[in-house]
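Incident log, structure service

09:12 report received: a user says their structure output differs between two submissions of the same chain.
09:20 pulled the input from the user's history:
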Amino acid sequence: MHHPQPHISSSTSTSFPAAAAFDFKPAKRRGSYNCGRCGLPKKGHVCHLNSTTYPTSISTPTSSPSAVTVENSSSASRPPHPPPLRQSYTHLRRALSFDDIDTRADSQERDLDGSNSPYPGTDLDPDNEMISGGLPAACLWEVLRRLPPAGLLAAASVCKGWRETTKRLWRAAEELRLMVPPRGQLRFIGSVLKKCPSLVRMSLKMESDVDATMLACIAFSCPNLESMEISTSNTAVNRITGDELGRFVADKRCLTSLKMEGCSNLGGFVLSSSSLSTLWLSDLYSLSKMVFNCPNLKEISLEFSRQENDTTDLTTMVDGMGRSSPRLQNIHIASVRLSHAVVLSLTAANLRGLRMLSLVLGSEITDASVAAIASSYSKLELLDLSGSSISDSGIGMICNVFPNTLSRLLLALCPNITSSGIQFATAQLPLLELMDCGMSVCDPDSQNSPCDESGDNELPNALNNKLYLMYQKLIIKHSRLKKLSLWGCSGLDALCLNCPELNDLNLISCKNLHPERLLLQCPSLQNVHASGCQESLIGAIKGQVSDSLASLENQFQCKRLADGSKRVRAPDCLSQEAIDDKKRRKVVDQQCKVLVD
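09:34 re-ran on a clean worker, output below:
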C-alpha cells in the first residue's frame, strides 16, 4: 500500500528548519475549519476557486488517514489536502497524545498498533517502529525490559504507547523472576502468568505458603515451562506433597530443571520424566519412598533436615537412584545419616560420567569411604566431604588418585585433619583452584574445657595435646590456587602463602594467628575476609597487601644521572619493558579489600 508523504513547499523548506515544524498545528481530525480549496478560514468566506485548478494536489486516501500536513499561513499557492473522513479514525490508537507531530518529512507514516501491518495478528519489530514523534521503540523496549515486574506493571499506566510496549514485553518474556507477596498470592500469580504465554524459565520467591493450587496454576499457565525454581522465606511453608509433585513433573514434558525449597511435607515421591536433567530438593524429612525414573537426569541435589529422628533410608535411595539415572554427573547429598554403607551403594552404581561428588555432614564417612570412592570414580573434578571423619591418610589417597583431574576440594568441618594434610594436598594437586578447610584445624580449648571431671593424671596429657594442636603452621605454595578458605581455623598459629593467582582468602575467626607469623605473597588478592580476627592481625593484613602493591609499583626501570648523583625513574620510551610496565600499572589499580564486617 502506498503511503503519502507530508508535503512541504520548496519556499517553506528553505526558510524554516525542521525543528520549526513544532510551531505549526496539524489538521484537526474532527473536521477542518479552513476552506478545502484555498485554505482560508471558512467563517465569512466564499471561495471562487475550482477544485480542478490545482492538478498537483495530493489527496489522502481514506485507508491511511494518518498522514500529517505541515502548513504555512504565508504560502497560499500550495494545494492543501482534503479533510479526511471522521469515521476512518475509529480504529486508530495513538501511542502518545502528541504523536501526530512528525519532523521527518522524508519518512513514511508508521502504524504503531500493527493494524496496517502486512502480517496481521503479529507485533511490529521494535527496531522499525517509532513512538512519540520520532522516539525509536527499541529505546523504550531496552529501558522497560530492565524493570522488575512491579515496575513494568506501573509503566503500563503511563500512556497507550507504553502500555502496548509492556504488553509486547510480557508476551515476549521467556524468563520471570518474581517475589510473591503474602496476600493474594494466587490471584497475583495468575494475573502475571496470564501475560506471559511464552514463558520457559521461572523463579519465584514465596513469602506465603505454597500448595497444590499454586502448582496447578503454574502448570496451566505455562505449557512450555522448562525451568522452575521455588524458594521460600522464613515465614512461608511449602505444603506440596510427593504425589502432587510427581503429577506436576509427569505432566510437564518440557521441564528440564526443577529446584524447590522447604520440601518437608513430601513424605515420599515418584518422579518420572524423560526430559528432567536437573533436580534440587531441600529440607527433606523422613521420606518413606524415593523413586527416580529419570533416564536423562545429570545433576541432583538432596538436602535433608538435621533432625536426629529422620527415618529416611539413604542406602536404598542411593541404590535406586544409581540404577535409574545412569547419566548422573553431579551428586550432592547433605544429611547427618550419611554413612559408609551409603558410599558403598553409590560406588556399586558405577556411574561412569560422575564428575562432581558432594557428601556433606556424614560423620560416619571415614578413610575407608575415601578408598571406595577413589577405586570407583577416578575422574572427579570436585570432591566435597565436609563434616566427615577422614584424616590425613584419606587426603593422601585423594592426592594419589586425582592429581590430574581434581580442581576443587572441600574438607570443612573435618576435625581429624591437620595442617600437614592440607599442605600435602596443595603440593600434590597441581590443578587445584579452590580449597575449603574451614573449622578443620581448630583450637580444642574453644570446645572442651581443661577443667573437666577427669583425673589429675589426664590433665597434663590434655594440655600437651592442646599445645600441639594449637601451634600449627601452614605453608602453601601453589601456582593455580584462586580461592582458599580457612574460616574458623583457630588452631593456626602461622600462615605463609605464595599463590600468585589467589584472589579470595577467608580468615574469619582465625583468632590465634600471630601478625608476626603471617606472610602473604599474593599479588592478585582482591578480597580478604578477616572478621572476628584480632585488630593487630587485621592491621598486618592491610600492611602486607599495601606493601605488595607498592612493590609492584616500584618495579619500573630506574637509572642514575650522568654524574651518578641519584637514581631517577627512566621514561617508558627508554625502557625495554614498557609494555610490561603498563601491565603492572593495571595490576596496581586493582585494590585489595579487607572485609571486616
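09:41 both user submissions now match this output. Likely a transient worker issue. Closing.
09:42 reviewer note: The chain is about 25% helix and 15% strand. The longest strand covers residues 278-284.
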